[in-house]
Specification:
Elements (H helix, E strand, L loop, with lengths): L23 E4 L5 E6 L5 H9 L3 H8 L8 H8 L6 E8 L2 E10 L6 E8 L8 H15 L4 E7 L3 H8 L6 E5 L2 E7 L4 H23 L4 E4 L8 H11 L6 E4 L1 H6 L2 E2 L2 E2 L13 E4 L7 E5 L2 H14 L3 E6 L8 H10 L5 E6 L5 H12 L4 E5 L4 H10 L2 E3 L2 H13 L7 E8 H13 L3 E11 L1
Parallel strand pairs: 5-6, 9-10, 9-13, 14-15, 14-16, 16-17, 17-18, 19-20
Antiparallel strand pairs: 1-2, 2-3, 3-4, 4-5, 6-8, 7-8, 11-12
Helix pairs in contact: 10-11, 11-12
InterPro entries: Acyl_CoA_acyltransferase, CoA-bd, GNAT_dom, NAD(P)-bd_dom_sf, Succ_CoA_lig_flav_dom, Succinyl-CoA_synth-like
Organism: Candidatus Frankia alpina
Protein name: GNAT family N-acetyltransferase
Length: about 450
């Protein structure tokens, strides 16, 4: 997949500050995921590896000529951009760079740009071209560009279809076996509809992987008959699931014993093949939904819930950029009658714009509490705008979620602080004052300093 060759660099290549807001986790048409980010000057080795996985046809479609190797000059042209007149984004799957998209403008015509796309052969047909076009258009719009032009070979029907199906009004002109496509990138009702429809189909495919797994691990599969973990494991073995099931039980694995006559593993990382679904045996069901981007952090959430006797309606520990994202769960919880509050641990927002949109919508009905690792001022601003309560510790997250789900919303800003210790009451009242509340101190009879 591609468009016409990029012209030589021109203008000021002095880069702006790294546009971190362009980073996003995206779901592809088959339910898999990729990470979109701005290109970096250090991406040369990744681009060389990417080049070795391209077919001669993909290279020909991109450069309009046969090429055997990528030169140092090519690498420099693609990676050293100012993200202003010339910009580029890449798609990452795991540690591999699998696609790149560029725009090339000129100082003389600052609102117009030539665009070019190149997607690894093994990843074609998964919707990467459409995703890259959406994100390249959004990034270029941020830099004042309002129109894209692309020259595409006539036989490159797949790339032509990406442009035509994007929801923009596309003008076409044929010349010498290539078609020049020109269109305004101002978001239109049709382009937004196309984007939302693509997201919906991709997210449905992603959830399909969860509901129709090829392999399952049962974390906390106990040996004791009748226990939750043991029952889940035995039901999977006798219920008709025809894929492999792996019990994860560190104690049983250390002792060299089996669970339900199946070898036990000490951790998910010891399982010999990829796992589509991990079933975590959690405390009794409740009204709090939890999501974690970290396995160890997810374990800490379960321990905190068990220690407090809090039941969970849903618990998902998806890992960083897994097939099921936090945004997927926000959409699920919006319609889930069993969930009254949401606790999320995030290491990255994935797609910040989408997160803000979904969180704002869900937060009108159900409180969202986020434990966000290493929050910046920009992160705090995003959480505030989305109506999300950001905290620093798991204990704070449960305190807030339980308070909001067990108590009615206060009518005003006045609170009473009641206790038997004058020092603790005063300390709590001062904290309330600092938060903008009007606190009245009430010391119980017989209370002390």
């Amino acid at each position: 997949m591609s468009a016409a060759p990029l012209p030589p660099p021109g203008g000021d290549d002095t880069p702006l500050a790294y546009p971190a807001e362009w980073e996003a986790d995206v779901i592809l048409t088959d339910g898999g995921t990729a990470h979109i980010r701005p290109i970096l000057p250090t991406d040369g080795p990744l681009l060389r590896g990417f080049w070795t996985r391209l077919s001669p046809q993909s290279i020909y479609f991109r450069f309009f000529t046969a090429r055997r190797a990528v030169s140092d000059a090519d690498i420099h042209q693609m990676t050293v951009v100012d993200q202003r007149t010339r910009g580029a984004i890449v798609a990452m799957i795991g540690d591999d760079l699998v696609a790149v998209a560029h725009w090339e403008g000129t100082v003389a015509r600052p609102t117009e740009a030539e665009v070019a796309f190149l997607v690894e052969d093994a990843q074609q047909g998964r919707g990467l071209g459409s995703v890259l076009l959406e994100h390249l258009a959004a990034a270029a719009w941020d830099r004042g560009i309002r129109r894209f032009d692309a020259d595409v070979l006539g036989e490159n029907r797949q790339m032509i279809r990406v442009f035509l199906d994007a929801g923009y009004t596309v003008a076409r002109a044929w010349d010498s076996g290539a078609v020049r496509l020109s269109f305004e990138i101002t978001p239109t009702e049709q382009s937004v509809t196309v984007m939302r429809a693509r997201e919906h189909r991709a997210e449905a495919a992603s959830i399909g992987r969860l509901l129709h797994p090829r392999s399952i691990a049962v974390i906390g599969a106990a040996r004791a008959a009748g226990s939750l973990g043991n029952s889940v494991l035995r039901h999977l073995l006798t219920g008709g699931f025809d894929g492999p099931v792996y019990p994860v039980n560190p104690a049983a694995a250390a002792a060299g014993t089996a669970v339900a006559s199946i070898r036990a593993y000490g951790g998910i990382e010891e399982v010999p093949r990829p796992i589509d679904l991990a079933v975590v045996c959690v405390p009794p069901a409740g009204r709090v939904g939890c999501y974690s981007q970290s396995g160890p952090f997810g374990g800490a959430i379960l321990q905190a819930a068990a220690a407090r006797g809090v039941g969970l309606s849903v618990f998902v520990s998806a890992g960083d950029r897994a097939d099921v994202s936090g945004n997927d769960l926000l959409q699920y919880w919006e319609e889930d009658p069993e969930t009254d509050a949401v606790i999320m641990h995030l290491e990255t927002f994935g797609n910040p714009r989408k997160f803000a949109r979904l969180a704002r919508r869900l937060g009108r009905r159900k409180p969202i509490v986020t434990v966000y690792s290493g929050r910046s001022a920009l992160d705090d601003a995003l959480l505030r705008q989305a109506g999300v309560i950001g905290v620093d510790r798991i204990s704070q997250a449960f305190d807030v979620a339980l308070l909001l789900t067990s108590q009615p919303l206060p009518a005003g800003s006045r609170v009473a602080v009641i206790g038997a210790s004058r020092a603790l009451v005063r300390l709590t009242a001062r904290a309330a004052d600092a938060a903008g509340l009007i606190a009245e101190e009430v010391l119980l009879p017989g209370g002390s300093g």
